Amino acid sequence: MEGSQRRAQDRGGRRFPATAFAALLVAGVCGGACEDAPAPVDSACGALSPGGAPIRRMTRFEYNNTVRDLLGDDTQPARAFVPEEEVLGYNNQAAALGVTQSLAEQYMKAAERLAEQAVVDLDTLMPGCDAEGEDALSCVDGFVRGFGRRAFRRPLDAGEVARFTELFGWGREAYDAPTGIALVIQGMLQSPHFLYRVELGMPDPVEKDVVQLSHYEIASRLSYLLWSSMPDEALFDAAEAGQLGTPGEIRAMAERMLEDPRARPAVLEFHRQWLELKHVDLMTKDPGTYPAYEEGLRPLWLAETEAFVEHVVFDDPAGDLTTLLTAPYSFLNEDLAAFYGVPGPEGEAFTRVDLDPAQRAGVLTHASVLATQAKPNQSSPIHRGKFVRERLLCDLVPPPPANLPIVVPEVQPGVSTRERFAQHRESLTCAGCHELMDPIGYTFEHYDGIGQWRDMDQGQPVDATGEVKRTHANGSFDGAIELAHHLAENEQVRQCVVSQWFRYGYGRAEKEEDHCSMVSLQQAFAESGYNIKALLVELTQTDAFRYRRQGGTP
Amino acid sequence: MSASRRLLSRRALLRGAGGVALGLPFLDAMSRSASATTFPKRFIVFFTGLGTVKDAWVPQGTELDFTLSEVLAPLAPFKEKLLVLEGIDMESAYHGPGDPHQQGIGHALTGTELQEGDLFPYACNPNAKVGWGGGISVDQFLASHLGASTKLGSLELGIQVQNANVSSRISYLGPGQPVPPEDDPRNTWNRLFSEIASDPDSAARRRAHRRRVLDQVMGDYHNLQGKLGAGDREKLEHHLEAVSEIERRLDAPGTIGGSCAIPTLGDPPEPFVNDNYPELGRLQIDQLVMALACDLTRVASLQWASTQAGKVFTWLGQNETHHQLSHSSPTDETRRQQIVDIGRWHAEQLAYLLDKLAAVPEGTGTLLDSTLILWCTDIAVGQTHARRDMPYVLAGGAGGALEMGRYLRYQGNSHNDLLVALCNAMDVDVTTFGNPAYCTGKLPGLGV
């Protein structure tokens, strides 16, 4: 029943016309040539077609979560690891994650420390086993199998059991039993089977290079997609019972997992990266320009966006993209409410606060986003426009062309930001790219460089009219509120959100072969009313999720 | 950081580093005041981004009789140990994929085209993408020759490099294999010094454990290789190489004693806060110098920020990012001066590094005498992104291989030739580096 027969049966229930979505699918990469007719797309989505998927190494976030769930260690040892290289705005893209000696040393030392901690209480680690005793080998064998299954996220084969049992024997012989156990743990935590998601698939390829994933491999795909961590016992049990094969089985499991608290930080991590919030820690603000700014605001800005996103995705009845982009409320504490100049709660806790719907709408008007997409001493229509274009419209805005002398408009008293940037339009060389960004950014001119509302800029009334051009979301808008409401209902934005989740969730860029997976995601997202949790479940239903084409061509 | 020495008995000092330190020629030489030539040569890359202001950088005068201009003035105390090089082009960086910043930084030490790839966008063309650097960088190349016996083949340190993409990487193990720098002085300390002073018994035990476990781990990688497709196999092969490097260096001694003393770190500042840049730089330099003095490595790089990071030099009274300033009009006197100030400030940091190296006695000379430092950047001028007439400075004694104390004017010689000359100065005998198409051989005029 494994393999192609089951596949044909599984797919029978979900056939759909792909053409309606296919036309829009190309929108996300149209760049400067959107007026051109979309390329014809094969609308037949019957054939199995996952895109090539390179082997995935754990990120620091995943490592921390995994050792917490594996060993109960919540010290986040990976915080000090070499940061991941970033591609497409995400740090979990398999193609970009290599290992240098420095990182290998960090893996080694972290494994040593984790193992040392773990063997402090051997009775808990391996109950009923006297590792120093005569019969130790049989119960150590049990430990190697049990712990190994959780560390490698699959049962060990006989050869592996023998090798790790030998490692224990060496450690006990040379030192003592706890050392033997510690070395086993060290070895496992540095193994590729722990650090990478090794996916060899079912024995019989369904076509050249394409395999259906094993039940254990699906368990890991589910747990890292939805929890950014290892599988729990229920997942392991289902894998062992062979109950992670059909889309229905996987769907039921995914729905259970989204109700688990572990899903929340995992979903927030996506939003931190999608919305480029790491810059909250990195940016600089000029206190001369912004007396209201203080360093203590950074964590509050982050906390606001996290509380808001968590609420929208998990607790709001709609739980949809529209709410994420337009909600006239947010989550504030006393200090942050004071910063925004609105009535709010007392104390440090964040609670829901209704805001003036003429001034704030969803995440785009959070200070976390507005301040990071700005300069130290001014707003930045370029950055804000580029952000909307890249992160919400999935339209890549490249850096300026080679050898172009660039003159950045500098702050001038009495001259509004908008006037200063007008020269981008006048210069033919600049206009081609900047008309993609600046006019979108102008709609955010009511927010200064730290995200506070303003009616005046350099003594002049703010003009926040702007437009979106050369996309499938074109339009003219007066202010970011209008823009946000437009984007929230726009097909290109909805598809872009799917693409962003695809990239983050699968750790790779979408490929041509993923066309049908994308179409099924778009369709299901639409059918759910653009519900974020529904999209997450749907990510577990695609060819790209359930099958693997060996990827990572060197 | 005060490099105060921990009080350790001489026996502990000598054995603590690995139990086999006694009898090393290097250490013997230290205690017998041998001549400087006894000491290994060291190589340091000092990278700052976004070029300079040429007329405030270029010295006044002739080859032997010159005055350092405003930017380089802080290096005046070391004038006799400098080679200021004008007129060298990064010709290779006008070829292959990538935008000027990507090419500038990615070619600086590799001298070859970036990889084609779909990882990073560039230029005003959404369909154009670029991969990583396309070849080994000169620091890693030298490490493979000079760093075989030390605890680390090379040491890559950063000061708020932060970004993690092709525009932010100078160092490559090979095509598509960037070596990211360590930004956090705490991690630097842990990597370099946390184990160096353990007592001999536990150090021996740790080595034995590691050898056995790494052997096991390498077995896992070997066993898995054969089951993977080509791309995944290559990825795990690089990982396996990294593990093998650790295993091979388990017995590398490191030397405590002589001028080597474990630095105390105190409470280092947060690595991502903009205004901590100066202090972070000092902490990284202090540790870099001690890593060399302790012979933990012989090759290092120090990367100051990444070219498009939002670094604001507030301590120089500035409130705009370096990147933005670098794009300002050359006729804007205020901002031109701010770029000059940034260059001069970085020269002060280089002077601090030279000062620290000169404070480490080795034989009759100092650590600076056996070290060669390359100060390089990604583009010559921020406003135009030009990669020609790059502002290069060499510093140190290079173990006597170069004739220092000069200001040399070249006429468009390629930087690949300079990379060859650097290798030769480090006694690595090559006649070409990077893509041979941009290399005519050793840059003339540097040597004695």
TrEMBL record, chain A:
Residues 213-342 form the DUF1592 domain. Residues 56-119 form the DUF1587 domain. Signal peptide: none annotated. It comes from Chondromyces apiculatus DSM 436. Residues 476-545 form the DUF1585 domain. InterPro entries: DUF1585 (IPR011478), DUF1587 (IPR013036), DUF1588 (IPR013039), DUF1592 (IPR013042), DUF1595 (IPR013043). Pfam families: PSCyt3, PSD2, PSD3, PSD4, PSD5. Residues 139-199 form the DUF1595 domain. Residues 360-456 form the DUF1588 domain. This is Cellulose-binding domain protein. It comes from the Bacteria.
